[in-house]
């Protein structure tokens, strides 16, 4: 049985270099910290997300009626599981386990479609059963780092089906290619996160982009004041053109960092899955469990892969950081021992 509630944050520990959690910044940038500090004096008031809704809509060129701010991308899955009663919910795996966990917790049956390592974890739409009335897919997918073509995702649409695309990491891909966020597409719901790029996982800031009827159904089951005042402030701040441009340059840096990491891994003879496009890579190493524990001994926490449906103990996920020399040296030693 896979532990769907296991997440990378459980794998970090005192003194370990954190390559297990995909939050890119060690702390929020100074301009964001300043705005967050400034809003604290206003905490006596209940939160009002109207400004955040408008800012997010403007950032994506959408109507505010298409936007629902949420307490992190993760809340969107819980809202969806509560508001929808799919006859056949399909979750495309391996992927972030929260969508399936939320559906199961709400008593919704889930069918898994497992993509294969041999195919580089590329999405084959023919694998999704015709009867699926809810399909959840990550783009780029955590943990495979694969970016699926927008056209393939659009091809999943059917009358009476909701296609949920988790774009939690798309702002970490330069230019946000293959995103479905910019247009109101019937039957498509896009989920975004601000927590990874901006180092605000503790703040819980994400949002849904969908048709107004879909947004309304989710809003109807959202707990009141679910999005806090600081989260709403972060949504406005991170939607400004300068912030979006900064996210893009962070994404470009991550792209270069990932290129160096992948080259280093390959030079150690490590198999890197698929064509990674996100700021993390999935690798397969025989004896991965032993390697992961030995890396911890050496001071590095990487994310175990065996809690993702479709992967086993030989799979490890490694977050991309600017300087991976120490990690690659430690891994080389572990592999040689
Ligand atoms: C693919 C994916 N989607 C969504 C989330 C949740 O993001 P948030 O912190 O915005 O709730 C995560 C967190 O790890 C994730 O990996």
From TrEMBL:
- What CDD domains does this protein's entry cite? AAT_like (cd00609)
Protein origin, superkingdom: Bacteria
Which GO MF terms are attached to this record? threonine-phosphate decarboxylase activity
UniProt-listed InterPro entries: Aminotransferase_I/II_large (IPR004839), NHTrfase_class1_PyrdxlP-BS (IPR004838), PyrdxlP-dep_Trfase (IPR015424), PyrdxlP-dep_Trfase_major (IPR015421), PyrdxlP-dep_Trfase_small (IPR015422)
In what residue span(s) does the Aminotransferase class I/classII large domain sit? 17-324
Q: What EC number(s) does this enzyme carry? A: 2.6.1.-
Q: Which cofactor does it need?
A: pyridoxal 5'-phosphate
Q: Say if the entry is tagged with keyword Transferase.
A: yes
**Quick check: keyword Transit peptide in the entry?**
no
What are the UniProt keywords, alphabetically? Aminotransferase, Lyase, Pyridoxal phosphate, Transferase
Q: Which family does it belong to?
A: Belongs to the class-I pyridoxal-phosphate-dependent aminotransferase family.
Protein name from the UniProt record: Aminotransferase
The organism's taxonomic lineage, starting at the top: Bacteria, Bacillati, Actinomycetota, Actinomycetes, Pseudonocardiales
